Amino acid sequence: MTSANATTAGVHMAEHFDVLIVGAGLSGIGAGYHLQEKCPGKSYAILEGRDCIGGTWDLFRYPGIRSDSDMFTLGYSFKPWTEAKAIADGPNILNYVRQTATENGIDGKIRFNHRVKRALWSSPEARWTVEAERTMGEGVTETVRFTCNFLFMCSGYYKYEEGYTPEFSGAADFAGRIVHPQKWPEDLDYAGKRVVVIGSGATAVTLVPEMAKTASHVTMLQRSPTYVVARPAEDALANKLRRNLSAKLAYHLIRWRNVLFGMYFFQLSRRKPERVKQLILGGVRMALGPDYDIATHFTPRYNPWDQRLCLVPDGDLFKAIRDKQASVVTNEIDTFTAGGIKLKDGSELEADIIVTATGLVLQVLGGLEVSVDGRVVDFSKTLNYKGMMYSDVPNMASAFGYTNASWTLKCDLTCEYVCRLINYMDRHGYKQCMPHNVDPSISELPSLDFSSGYVQRSIAKMPKQGSKRPWRLYQNYALDIITLRYGKVDDGVMQYS
């Protein structure tokens, strides 16, 4: 194997691996583990654009950063979560991911500061040529090339460089600081300050109670409400089982209990939305008392699970509101002013700091440019195969989690399937596998049926799903176990050559 440092007339020779993984976050480290376990003869490397392991869990540094799923399902299938808190904070999750990498020697396979820019497939050679921009320090970069037989994208689903901020009129007039949670400044001191957090999603409901601990007051300013559900941060049954059973057995029992409850709750939301709505609002009413205006501030215009639910551990958001440290205002912004935000109804919110928790910018495959035999791939014109591969794109998969359950549940299954696929190709002497639709009755559907703003802004650029299997995404873990872990790899849709 040629070393990456071997140069010919200043051009880096392409280093070859059987598999290249892009991204060293939760999914990428999981992919490394599965490859080592199930395809032990395969060489692989992980290309990571940043200088450390962790992806999302290292990128986001805002106060109170935590998971909005329990760690028994967000954790890896192969590594039991052993901390007391089921709803874990960011630093603990980051530590868990890094520990997994170190314990399994995966950290030695990572090439940091390698931002993957493009991938070119050649059918005659049956391999990808992957170009990455390597940061040499002080803004100096160079292009390095790798080749691989299989490309596994674990680069997440949103743009790391910037979050989404709408154009706010008068933003330049505001005398205080405007901060986006994705780029949290280390020097931001909000103690004793008046803070307005714009947004009503997972980030906003995390930030508000945490900042309220030291700020003079925090206002959550939302255009429309989100469903908010309180859950204990610690899982009493899980902690009891762990005291009496082996870590592994306890972990899998709790994992399955949580998976089955999540699936039941999701299906109930779809079948009896009004009943679930009243159940959720009843919980909010219990937390905030009968006099609070729940109709205005906590009753969304859509049904439960048309967007993701917001989870508040130990009801911390409700406690901050009850203690008058935080408040919710449901209104539209007219303009920013020197001293805060003027609303459409003419009232004004005073602020020293404004936090724009206004969402993410979604992107396909980390913004990678892909071409197959010289043809540039437009992913919005592709069909998503089994939630991980793309029609007429060979030897490439991507890890994409569930929208209605923990991200890692689907990523673990995706990794298992990719390993099955690679081993199947080896056994039969195939060099190329490519999903190809030959069924004219399949119609195209959006890949995500969420009404959330961040999804709707980007849905046109996303791959489509088909109207039936294997192009249909069911967002159902039990069904995916059957198809991905036990279903046929040679299903008549996947073409081998």
From TrEMBL:
Cofactor annotation: FAD
Swiss-Prot/TrEMBL keywords: FAD, Flavoprotein, Monooxygenase, Oxidoreductase
A Pfam family of this chain: NAD_binding_8
Source organism, top-level taxon: Bacteria
Residue intervals passing through the bilayer: none
Family: Belongs to the FAD-binding monooxygenase family.
Name used for this protein in its record: Predicted flavoprotein CzcO associated with the cation diffusion facilitator CzcD
Native source species: Bradyrhizobium ottawaense
